[in-house]
Amino acid sequence: MSIAVIAGLGNPGPKYRNTRHNIGFDVVDRFAYQLGGVWRPEARFEAEVATVQAGERKLLLVKPQTYMNDSGRSLGAVLRYHKLGPESLLVTYDDLTLDLGRAKLSVNGSSGGHNGIGDLLDRIGPGFVRYRIGIGAKPVKEMDLADYVLSQFKPAERELISSRMPDFLDHIRLIIDKGIETAFNIINQRTSTTHERSHNK
């Protein structure tokens, strides 16, 4: 399995910038910046794209501009155009079942209630690689789910996510360079975050 396309999921426009649901955009933005990629609109994919070189491998970075719930429409067009299967796609996105700042790698399974992933499963099928980043659970059970995922990170939460960003980027490089199995064993080990360590001193 060789990754050729890395997509971050999110919603376009300034209204959604820095919201929990847009952490996938944040990660691919930083990855593009790290590798000198320049974003450009690509109408046929309904996306912003950037081409980067990671070692000897050329990668296409994608930010669908279809809004989260139609992510599969954009990424399906990307895969069909490049004649790639789902296994060539790495998707990074938010997961409220994981603690804030924790990351987990998976390939199979349901959407877990994530509408962007649900649309991908409907339109391109299973087999794509999922890099999930924890945004933490709703603070109050009664809170509307959409209100929560579309809310801004609090300053302390944003600071924690920023401190973890180098780890997220390292994880993506690990997946690309060493393959899924090696990455599984490293990323999915439950190690404490910097935030947790500081509270345990």
From TrEMBL:
Keywords: Cytoplasm, Hydrolase, RNA-binding, tRNA-binding. TRNA binds at Y16, Y67, N69, N115. It comes from the Bacteria. GO terms for molecular function: peptidyl-tRNA hydrolase activity; tRNA binding. Its main location: cytoplasm. The record marks N11 as: Discriminates between blocked and unblocked aminoacyl-tRNA. The record marks D94 as: Stabilizes the basic form of H active site to accept a proton. Its EC number is 3.1.1.29. Pfam families: Pept_tRNA_hydro. One of its GO terms (cellular component) is cytoplasm. It is found in: Cytoplasm. InterPro entries: Pept_tRNA_hydro (IPR001328), Pept_tRNA_hydro_CS (IPR018171), Pept_tRNA_hydro_sf (IPR036416). SUPFAM superfamilies: Peptidyl-tRNA hydrolase-like (SSF53178). It catalyses: an N-acyl-L-alpha-aminoacyl-tRNA + H2O = an N-acyl-L-amino acid + a tRNA + H(+). Coiled coil: none annotated. The active site is at H21 (proton acceptor). Monomer. PANTHER family: PEPTIDYL-TRNA HYDROLASE. Belongs to the PTH family. Hydrolyzes ribosome-free peptidyl-tRNAs (with 1 or more amino acids incorporated), which drop off the ribosome during protein synthesis, or as a result of ribosome stalling. This is Peptidyl-tRNA hydrolase. It comes from Coraliomargarita sinensis. The lineage of its organism: Bacteria, Pseudomonadati, Verrucomicrobiota, Opitutia, Puniceicoccales.
